[in-house]
Specification:
The protein is α+β, with helices and mostly antiparallel strands. The chain has 23 helices and 22 strands. Helix content is about 45%, strand content about 25%. The strands form 5 sheets. A 6-stranded mixed β-sheet has the order 14-18-19-17-16-15. It has a 5-stranded mixed β-sheet with strand order 6-8-9-11-10. Strands 20-12-13-22-21 form a 5-stranded mixed β-sheet. Helix 4 packs antiparallel against helix 5.
Length: about 650
Amino acid sequence: MDVNEYLGLFLDESQEHIQSVNTQLLKLEQTGSQEAIQEIFRSAHTLKGMSATMGYESVANLTHEMESALDLVRAGKKESNQLLLDTMFSAMEQIEEMIADIETGGRGANIDVTATVSAFQSFIGSTPKAVEVVDETVFTADLYTDSVITQAKETGFEAFQLHVKLSDAVVLKAARAYMVFDRLQELGEVVRTVPETEAIEQEQFDLSFDVLFVSQESADVIEHAVSQVSEVEHVQVTPYTSAAAGAPEVAVSAESVAVAEVKPKAMETDEPKEQAVAQAKTIRVNLERIDRLMNLFEEFIIDRGRLERLADEVGQPELNETVEKIKRGTNELQSLVLTLRMMPIEQVFNRFPRMVRSVAKDIHKKVQLEITGAETELDRTVIDEIGDPLVHLIRNAIDHGIELPEVRLEAGKPEQGRLALRAYHGGNRVFIEIEDDGAGINVDKVRSKALERGVITSEEATAMTDNEVAMLIFAPGFSTADVVTDLSGRGVGLDVVKNKIESLGGVVTLETVVGQGTKFQVSLPLTLSIISAMLVQVGDETYAVPLSSILETTLLDEADILTAHRERVFDFRGQLVPLVYLKEMFAIETETKTQFPVVVVRKGNKLVGVVVNDLIGQQEIVMKPLGTYLEGIPAISGATILGDGRVALIVDSNDLF
């Protein structure tokens, strides 16, 4: 079997099981749930089986120890304690490192797990294990067997009978048996098996089989080698003593000769047939194929826009009807294509509870993590890239923001700090917030350090608001930490975070109040290639405003414009909403009107009225990046190609607030 063919599947499923174990470990620590123990055991067992099948013995051996410890707990023979929980958390960190090593071409064998294995074995202790005693006369003599055994003994070999019992929860019986034979071939030669080899290969046996084996190794060496194979529950090695020559061959163990009907996988695990069919409907698709599909569909959308324009010019009813049918069909196809790349940000968020627990414990702090909006969907590309920046921000909040328990109590706060992680959609962007109720950022200290290092001048320092000064912590090499630790103080991290987020087309901001806490906000584009937009006219230029950010459109008279705090505003249903003129923002010459359209856009609870010359209408557009040449233009997030071949810029309404 070429395991490389299944490597991608192994890595994906391993990550799923690792995440499941992490989630259930936290649940187990907080509630002591028996259901959590069962879920952890199942995931560890499956992970062990997959790793063994792929030949990654380091992962298989560590998960085997974890499984053995959990088996005692779920059977009621041992009680879960903090030692076991800490050991399991450590084991999962090491397994993650092993999987990461395998992903980069390694074998996961360079991780030192000696201490973790010892801790598991210490927990397991000397718990007695039931040993299956097997009759030693499974193999009776015939002329062929006697001849082979006699010749083997003449050349210094000894004959052994092995009884191998697999775990009750074994996933692939034939694969486990193959691995046993593979180990035995390294030590000697297999003479016979019961049941026959063909039956074992076809999984036509229960959970045990017997092997007649000749080797120059001792029984202990053979037993140890076979017992190291994953999902081998027990192996018994005894010297083989032949019976009288010519005696009829019989098998004493009915279990070992039983030939079972070959069953589908779903039947082996007592799954309902319908459930197995439903599971088969989910497939994994290479991301490159989805990208190719997306690129082809983008071109199709541009051509569709061109076709719609030509149909309007021709004015033939049959052509218009056909174009309309194409439009309806492609609208449905578009929604399906777009969702292929969208994934819930839960994939990123789920790794943080264990990390917060570990970091807080290391620096003797108590932190409660609250996660909301994990179902918020984001493009797969952004999902893959945003994890590390969020890790930095969360670690920074725990280390710099949240105080030690005794300090919090003195300040009249609960000793346990609160760390909130939120995600939500806002227009055509996703917002992620990391907020703590800690000490806040010492703005005076930041200002002093910035002046000392020449990051700002004294004039700039005087003119800057507190939040603007606080943003200086994102400057390269900037740090206010008095002590260098493993978490902070080396002057690297937050500038890298800012650069990474900006490379994804995002923005990071912060708000802080001394003594009350700090909130970091990361704004990211959905990076959906195809969006619905309202096309608007400003002078001779056409702009696209994403429909997702539009509340409504309205007509406004010049007389309706008011002034408040030296800003132009208008009364929108009892609320004063500021006005932004695109012609002024982009310096476009246009005729003066006494009545003009206003596009009301929103960001959270805030509203802004965007003044334009004309409304062209709604259209599906393909977003294209501006590239480095036009990078950094305010209030513009990209461009699109219209049906007539012209280019229209896409307005980023979030920059208007």
